[in-house]
Amino acid sequence: xxxxxxxxxxxxxxxxxxLLAGIGLVAAxxxxxxxxxxxxxxxxxxxxxxxxxxxxxxxxxxxxHIRGNIFKADLNEARQAFxxxxxxxxxxxxxxxxxxVQIQVVERKPVARWEGGGLVDSEGKGFDAPSDENFPxxxxxxxxxxxxxxxxxxxxxxxxxxGQSISRMDYSPRSSxxxxxxxxxxxxxxxxxxxxxxxxxxxxxxxxxxxxxxxIRYVDLRYRDGxxxxxxxxxxxxxxxNENDNETTPRNQAAD
Length: 256
Prior knowledge:
Layout: H1 7-35, E1 43-47, H2 55-65, H3 75-83, E2 88-96, E3 100-107, E4 110-114, E5 119-121, E6 126-127, E7 137-139, H4 145-159, E8 166-171, E9 177-181, E10 186-190, H5 194-209, E11 216-220, E12 228-231, E13 245-247
Parallel strand pairs: 1-3, 4-7, 7-8, 10-11
Antiparallel strand pairs: 2-3, 4-5, 5-6, 8-9, 9-10, 11-12, 12-13
């Protein structure tokens, strides 16, 4: 049987041709829309709670990476450009029909300066950004940043009743913690039970330490049932005229 005598086959061929023609028309329409001058990006809308990022800086970045047709604008490239800005933690970019691109920016929240350079944000990530703000100093290994950020918030809350703040946190490679307060007193917390030891300091602060705060060099809280206080040179400590340890409990070996 010849093909033109097979009505079913001809019908299937016609349907396939119509389908291919339809696909071609859709593809042509898409290509026309992507390259058409009739759908330009007219508005770039930037949202977010911004404190350190300037609108001018963000608009400049947007103008460099979001151009031309709303359909052809490379939103992934724009997102990467925004997230490359020092103060940007995350950016989401999307099209809003018919002529708007919306950018949602999440700004980094700085917590501390990292000894050796850079800042540390609330997620424990290091970044470089210009800032004259006064932040506490973190010193340790980079892998400890997130732990240090979390413990910094916890330790600050514990210290709140004393009215003191942390100006520096030192973490040794073995995670031994030393806090330096805004008044210069160092607190040796060791590796274990740091929060409990800090609460012990807060209790002793109100009971016996506050009145001698100006004379205290450091408080060693690594003892099992108490702590040791070392006073600054020249402080009047029970008749001694040099740096001396004045323990609130009988001397025993530090727990760690």
